């Protein structure tokens, strides 16, 4: 955040204050982990095809390229983030993105990207089918393997994003 201060960093701070996000994540992180998760979502949603490890370099590159919100605008990022966290909060609440006790960053980025890809077609009629698809995804051994070990490895990032996108694609 210090290196890439400017409009994008300010946007991340604003998005971090979103009521639905706060309900999912919990109290603000002093170490900005909550803003990092928002950045991960945006970077993977808009640029997953450019991903290569390490994750930190990928995130720094994405933030640097979008520092002034000229490549991808503030509205496009807000439009991807806000409805996604609204559905997740409505359907799952505080237990969202926590396959065990703590929030899992790999589950977070993949679920959010998969759902945001579905929401490009329009709103969901009901949150219940999303909750069911989420639970089914957490019962998929291949998905769980990709969110537990080697989470920055390209094949695991690709697998978890593909599985989440597929899980939510058919939701009405």
Characteristic key phrases:
single chain, 172 residues, mainly alpha
Can you lay out the helices and strands and say which pair or pack?
Blueprint: H1 7-16, H2 19-25, H3 33-47, H4 55-65, H5 74-92, H6 105-119, H7 128-138, H8 141-148, H9 154-169
Task: Explain this structure.
By secondary structure, this protein is an all-alpha fold. It has nine helices and no strands. 65% of the residues lie in helices and 0% in strands. Helix 8 (141-148) packs across helix 9 (154-169). It has helices spanning 7-16, 19-25, 33-47, 55-65, 74-92, 105-119, 128-138, 141-148, 154-169. The protein has one domain (7-169). The protein is globular.
Q: Tell me, what's the shape?
A: globular
Our Rg estimate from Cα atoms comes to: 15 Å
By DSSP, the count of extended strands is: 0
Q: Which ranges are low-confidence, i.e. pLDDT below 50, for 5 or more consecutive residues?
A: none
- What count of helical segments does DSSP give? 9
Largest sheet, in brief, is: none
Structural class: mainly alpha
Distance between the termini: 38 Å
Summed up:
By secondary structure, the protein is mostly helical. The protein is 65% helix and 0% strand.
């Amino acid at each position: 955040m210090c290196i890439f201060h400017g409009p994008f960093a300010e946007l991340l701070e604003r998005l971090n204050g979103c009521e639905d996000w706060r309900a999912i994540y919990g109290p603000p992180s002093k170490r900005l982990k909550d803003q990092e998760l928002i950045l991960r979502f945006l970077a993977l949603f808009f640029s997953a095809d450019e991903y290569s490890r390490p994750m930190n370099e990928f995130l720094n590159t994405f933030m640097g390229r979008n520092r002034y919100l000229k490549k991808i605008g503030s509205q496009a990022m807000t439009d991807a983030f806000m409805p996604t966290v609204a559905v997740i909060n409505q359907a799952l609440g505080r237990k969202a993105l926590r396959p065990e006790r703590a929030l899992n960053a790999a589950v977070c980025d993949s679920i959010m990207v998969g759902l945001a890809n579905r929401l490009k077609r329009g709103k969901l009629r009901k949150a219940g089918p999303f909750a069911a698809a989420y639970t089914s995804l957490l019962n998929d051994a291949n998905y769980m393997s990709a969110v537990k070990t080697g989470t920055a490895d390209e094949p695991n990032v690709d697998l978890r994003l593909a599985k989440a996108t597929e899980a939510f694609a058919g939701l009405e």
